[in-house]
Design brief:
With 97 residues, this protein is an alpha+beta fold. The protein contains four helices and four strands. The protein is globular, with a radius of gyration of 13 Å.
């Protein structure tokens, strides 16, 4: 499975939409987050822990804006990404999703 397909699968699993308006910026939106702010906080905290993510800013109850350095993100260890997915998955499961 291509990395883009795998990433899209996880976005769908966690009910997150992705927009990529500019290089170095992503907007994550989820209809779940207004009802579960702890989930948005968990995603924000987890993403801030990645090398290359410089800012994960809340811009609404349902949105996060990420600013990142793509060169650093490309060097991430795949095991770090799997651990991140498990951490977020555990929080979603605890919240009933």
């Amino acid at each position: 499975m291509a990395p883009e397909e795998l990433f899209a699968r996880y976005l769908q699993k966690y009910q997150i939409e992705l927009q990529h308006p500019d290089h170095g910026q992503m907007v994550l939106t989820s209809a779940v987050w207004p009802h579960q702010p702890a989930l948005r906080q968990a995603v924000q905290t987890a993403l801030l822990g990645l090398n290359g993510v410089q800012v994960a800013e809340v811009v609404g109850t349902d949105q996060l804006v990420l600013r990142y350095d793509s060169a650093q993100l490309r060097r991430l260890n795949p095991l770090k990404l799997l651990a991140l997915e498990r951490q977020i998955g555990r929080r979603y499961h605890e919240a009933g999703y």
